[in-house]
Amino acid sequence: MLKSHAKFGLGQIVKHRKHPFRGVVFDVDAMFANTEEWYDAIPEDSRPSKDQPFYHLLAENENSYYVAYVSEQNLEADDTGEPVDHPDLPELFGDFENGYYPLQAQLN
User: Fold this and answer.
1) What's the rounded Cα separation, in Å, for the pair 43 and 17?
2) Which of 68, 56, 59 is nearest to 88 (CA)?
3) Tens digits of per-residue pLDDT, 73-108?
4) Are residues 14 and 75 in contact, defined by beta-carbon separation less than 8 angstroms?
5) Strand 22-29 vs strand 75-77: parallel, antiparallel, or unpaired?
6) pTM greater than the 0.70 cutoff
7) How does DSSP assign 37-89, residue by residue?
């Protein structure tokens, strides 16, 4: 059954449940909207259901910055209160405040 709304919002900081990275939500797909090749690259026993929100993140780990695409079931809110240091954040968001990044970019 398709969920009616996303658990996390734009500008919210989240972290992956299993892998050591966190990021800022900059887009949400109501259900899986990536390529089948991308989906098939996930080990079969770890593949998330396609019928859930998927989040585009400006992500960071100890070593790098990147864009991640993650299912809702694999994310949780980041409660550290610490900002994310991704270099692309200023293109979309204002300064970190009250645990969020306020959206500054024009949406289509």
Assistant:
1) 16
2) 59
3) 999 999 999 999 999 999 999 999 989 999 986 655
4) yes
5) unpaired
6) yes
7) HHHHTS-GGGPPPSSS-EEEEEEE-SS-EEEEEEEGGGEEE--S-PPP--TTH
